[in-house]
């Protein structure tokens, strides 16, 4: 009876074969290239998604700022007509001064997409808030006549409505159109 060895003798002839080594080398190279291409494609997709997401965020920011400025313009105009132009008593001028909504304006300080908004629009909004506060403060201190301050406020509101608000609206619509041309509908990125 023949004894079978516990360990079979290995045939290492194939390891000496050049074809084996070439196939192994090509397999390693193709794996590296495949991983690189997959990573590159994933990175491109992530960057594209991030860019579109920022554009959508900025669209919402512009729309919100537009609404806030329009509401504040209505409040200031009503205040100017009712209290300042009519030269009401000082206590009424102080008591009925409209509190301006600044939620969006203040939030913009912390929003990373704020600086993607055209600087001219941010400047116009800043000037509107600054000049309207200044005029109302000066009317309350009697540094300006109430009637004159009221007329100045109405001019400020008129400029806002004729220049800033339409520009802000066009700017937001331009973003929406640009996204739509790239196949992204507003709101669709927030749903994913």
From TrEMBL:
<keyword id="KW-0472">Membrane</keyword>
<feature type="transmembrane region" description="Helical">
    <location>
        <begin position="20"/>
        <end position="39"/>
    </location>
</feature>
<keyword id="KW-1133">Transmembrane helix</keyword>
<keyword id="KW-0812">Transmembrane</keyword>
<protein>
    <recommendedName>
        <fullName>Chemotaxis methyl-accepting receptor HlyB-like 4HB MCP domain-containing protein</fullName>
    </recommendedName>
</protein>
């Amino acid at each position: 009876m023949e004894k079978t060895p516990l360990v079979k003798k290995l045939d290492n002839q194939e390891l000496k074969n050049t074809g084996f080594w070439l196939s192994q080398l090509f397999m390693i190279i193709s794996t590296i290239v495949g991983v690189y291409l997959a990573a590159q494609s994933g990175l491109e997709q992530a960057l594209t998604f991030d860019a579109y997401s920022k554009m959508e965020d900025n669209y919402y920011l512009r729309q919100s700022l537009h609404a806030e400025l329009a509401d504040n313009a209505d409040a200031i105009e009503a205040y100017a007509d009712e209290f300042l132009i009519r030269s009401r008593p000082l206590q009424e001028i102080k008591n009925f001064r409209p509190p301006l909504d600044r939620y969006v304006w203040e939030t913009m300080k912390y929003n990373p997409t704020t600086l993607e908004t055209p600087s001219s629009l941010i400047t116009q909004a800043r000037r509107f808030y600054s000049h309207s506060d200044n005029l109302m403060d000066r009317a309350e201190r009697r540094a300006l006549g109430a009637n004159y301050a009221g007329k100045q406020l109405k001019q400020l509101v008129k400029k806002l409505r004729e220049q800033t608000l339409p520009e802000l609206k066009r700017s937001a619509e331009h973003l929406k159109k640009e996204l739509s041309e790239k196949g992204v509908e507003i709101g669709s990125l927030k749903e994913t």
